[in-house]
UniProtKB/TrEMBL annotation:
Name recorded for this polypeptide: 2-oxoglutarate-dependent ethylene/succinate-forming enzyme
Catalyzed reactions: 2-oxoglutarate + O2 + 2 H(+) = ethene + 3 CO2 + H2O; L-arginine + 2-oxoglutarate + O2 = guanidine + L-glutamate 5-semialdehyde + succinate + CO2
Pathway in which the depicted protein is active: Alkene biosynthesis; ethylene biosynthesis via 2-oxoglutarate
Top enzyme class: oxidoreductase
Organism of provenance: Amylibacter marinus
Domain Fe2OG dioxygenase positions: 149-254
UniProt keywords, alphabetically: Ethylene biosynthesis, Iron, Metal-binding, Oxidoreductase
Top-rank taxon, per record: Bacteria
InterPro entries: DIOX_N, IPNS-like_FE2OG_OXY, IPNS-like_sf, Iron_ascorbate_oxido_reductase, Oxoglu/Fe-dep_dioxygenase_dom
PANTHER family: 2-OXOGLUTARATE (2OG) AND FE(II)-DEPENDENT OXYGENASE SUPERFAMILY PROTEIN-RELATED (PTHR47990)
Pfam families linked to this entry: 2OG-FeII_Oxy, DIOX_N
This enzyme's EC code(s): 1.13.12.19, 1.14.20.7
Keyword presence, Glycoprotein: no
Length: 279
């Protein structure tokens, strides 16, 4: 186990797009710093959502059958091909769907900013991805997510571990994300690990204000492996640090009709949601 020595890229770097694509290609991850989302806003998001997860009326927002927005209770999701459920609860925010009053304004604003940053990063990939790989795409990456209703901000709460935690159960078992790229604002506590191409697990730096980006399965599929999807997981805390952990990944999802390879993004997503117990 070692620290992940991924370069932190600033959007103002002259060669930001090249560095970003190189890092995604060689490590599956990239770190963005000096973006325009203030740390104070990230901290405020964690604060208001911590209060919401501690509130009594969470179940009023429980996800409805056939839907994917709203509240998902503790142990509702498993990683693909893993039996045990992850030790987490979460809320799925879509720009066009309802969010609780107490968190609405800040969440909409934060989500808008993060989606804009995600669009910019996909635009970087459009600039520097080799022409033969671009030739495989039905449309540029940035276009795939334009006016997409499928971009998903997941606000996660990993409660302190109970005394009777089942052997082998973890906060988040190893998985690849389904979507194109994920923007993962640094969590409130450490625990996130990424696997490199040699199979070694690394701690992802838990530095406030950093946004870690990883390639997902749709990006790997659309580029036939040019950008490999990166396995990652969230490990359980040591006993002396058994606190709640919060994190907020934004999953950038194409419009449903975008063709990835032999499947549309909508078909791909549907199949994967069934495999992870969410559909
Ligand atoms: O909590 C984290 O830091 C990672 C969450 C994650 O990988 C996911 O929800 O897909
Ligand atoms: Fe993930």
């Amino acid at each position: 186990m070692s620290d992940f020595s991924v370069l932190a890229i600033s959007p103002s770097d002259a060669d930001a797009a090249e560095k970003f694509a190189k890092s995604l290609r060689e490590t599956g991850f990239a770190i963005i710093k000096d973006h325009d989302i203030p740390v104070a806003e990230i901290d405020a998001m964690y604060r208001v959502w911590a209060e919401w997860f501690a509130s009594e009326n969470k179940e009023d927002f429980a996800v409805q059958a056939g839907e994917s927005n709203g509240y998902f209770g503790y142990k509702s999701e498993n990683a693909k091909d893993v039996k045990q459920k992850d030790l987490k609860e979460f809320f799925h925010v879509y720009q066009s769907k309802e969010v609780p009053d107490s968190v609405r304004e800040i969440t909409r604003d934060f989500n808008t900013k993060l989606i804009a940053l995600g669009a910019k990063l996909l635009g970087w990939l459009d600039q520097v991805t080799p022409a033969d790989v671009q030739g495989l795409l039905g449309e540029p990456f940035e276009k795939m997510i334009e006016a997409s209703d499928n971009n998903l901000l997941r606000v996660l709460h990993y409660p302190p571990l109970p005394d009777d935690v089942e052997p082998g159960a973890t906060r988040a078992a190893a998985h690849g994300d389904i979507n194109l790229i994920t923007l993962l604002v640094t969590g409130s506590e450490p625990g996130l690990q990424a696997q490199d191409v040699n199979g070694t697990w690394h701690d992802v730096p838990c530095q406030s204000g950093y946004i870690t980006v990883n390639a997902g399965d749709m990006l790997e599929q659309a580029t036939r492996g040019h950008y490999p999807s990166t396995p990652h997981r969230v490990i359980n805390p040591p006993a002396q640090e058994n606190r709640s952990r919060y994190s907020m990944p934004l999953f950038m999802h194409p419009r449903s009709e975008v063709v990835l390879d032999h499947q549309t993004a909508g078909e791909f997503l549907d199949q994967r949601l069934k495999e992870i117990g969410l559909k």
